[in-house]
């Protein structure tokens, strides 16, 4: 019974840490950029697009394809940063908890977040 009590306590700690992590992710933003900063994309910590900044020199009609490619690249850069931040937050939230499927020491262990 003591083991079950410990598991319930760990589950409650994990739930509290996950709620804290969710709040931090909602408040966070990450910027990605491409073309030496000529295109910047801002994503929320949950991956929602919050803004795009485009250098006016890319607005020429003959630069359309370049601009489109740079927007995609800037988004990918920001998304990679958001995923790294989420992994770090998840690691903090699960630190010290031995949760099956989570890599033991709190790592993601192949666990993929749904957002």
Report on the architecture of this protein.
The protein has about 120 residues and is of the alpha+beta class. Helices cover about 50% and strands about 15% of the residues. It has 2 helices and 3 strands; from the N terminus they run αβββα. A 3-stranded antiparallel sheet has the order 1-2-3. α1 packs antiparallel against α2 (about 65-95). The longest helix is centred in the last third of the chain and has 31 residues, at about 65-95. The chain is rod-shaped, with a radius of gyration of 19 Å.
Short structural description:
It contains two helices and three strands, in the order αβββα. By secondary structure, it is α+β, with helices and mostly antiparallel strands. Strands 1-2-3 form a three-stranded antiparallel beta sheet.
Percent range for β-strand residues? 15-25%
Q: Give the overall shape, derived from the CA principal axes.
A: rod-shaped
- Helix and strand succession? HEEEH
In order across it, which strands form the biggest sheet? 1-2-3
Counted beta strands: 3
Our Rg estimate from Cα atoms comes to: 19 Å
How many distinct helices?
A: 2
